[in-house]
Amino acid sequence: MLSVARILRIGVVGMMALVVAACGSSVPASIADRKPGVASPALPPSAATKPATPVPVTPPVAVPQVPTEPQVEVKPIAAPPTIEARPIEVRPIEVRPPTAPVPVPETAPPAIPAQKPSAASLRAELKTEPRAFKAPYSDEALAAMQRGDGREASKPEARAPATEVKPPPVTIAKPEAVPVDPDAVDWMWPTGGRVIESFEANAKGLAIAGRLGDPVMAAGGGRVIFIGNGPPGYGQLVIIKHNDTFISAYAHNSRILVKEGAAVKRGQKIAEVGASDTDRPKLHFEIRRAGKPVDPAAHLPERR
Q1: What is the C-alpha separation between 282 and 59, in angstroms, rounded?
Q2: pLDDT for position 156
Q3: pLDDT for position 183
Q4: Using the 8-state DSSP alphabet, how is residue 107 labeled?
Q5: CA angle, corner 241, sides to 235 and 245, nearest 5?
């Protein structure tokens, strides 16, 4: 009996022989479908046994020749236009016999330039006598002129020319020019209340009644030079410089609406009437000229 090892060795050698034989064959292995009821598909014949299929050959295609020079279309030259010949009309010329007189055209005689008279001939032709003169109208002068006896009438006496009397020139008195103050200010009332205190040496201005919140307006255009608490008795104060001569002051305000250094226009609202540092709502208004208080009523327009 063969041993198990020998049997395994023989089996391995046989399987290797089968593998080598299978690799050397070119015939494809058939695949069997072991499913019941399904037939195995037929394999196509190999390339070695399949007949060759004829390949159609296309005829050669003619390649158009590319011209190497540009093609220029040559047009025939048009024939020159035909000129229609026209007959020339010939007229007979009249020829006269030599015995006939030939008419001669009449020519005007040349113009003779007129001679200018000389100065001597002109003086000879001028008559100097009798000289004409004017005579005043009278019966004797008219009779002598009608007789033509050549006697001259008595000449009138020469009169001295009348001198034109010119009226004396009228002088119109011109109104004297009123000197204009260069520092004058177009003043207006700063508020609409009535004056309750007039200008005095101690008051230095006008006290104008009002209600709290009434507008206080700039009495003239200028620049604000001070705002805030003034000296005792002034309260909230605004001072405006109008020019180098005049300034105006507005005291006892409840609210100031402008800033120091601001430019203001005439009639611009600068504050509101108040009762600061006083016993009742009012506006204390001053005008100062060169630093000295003056009566504002003398500069403000008259109220209507």
Answers
A1: 127
A2: 52
A3: 79
A4: -
A5: 120
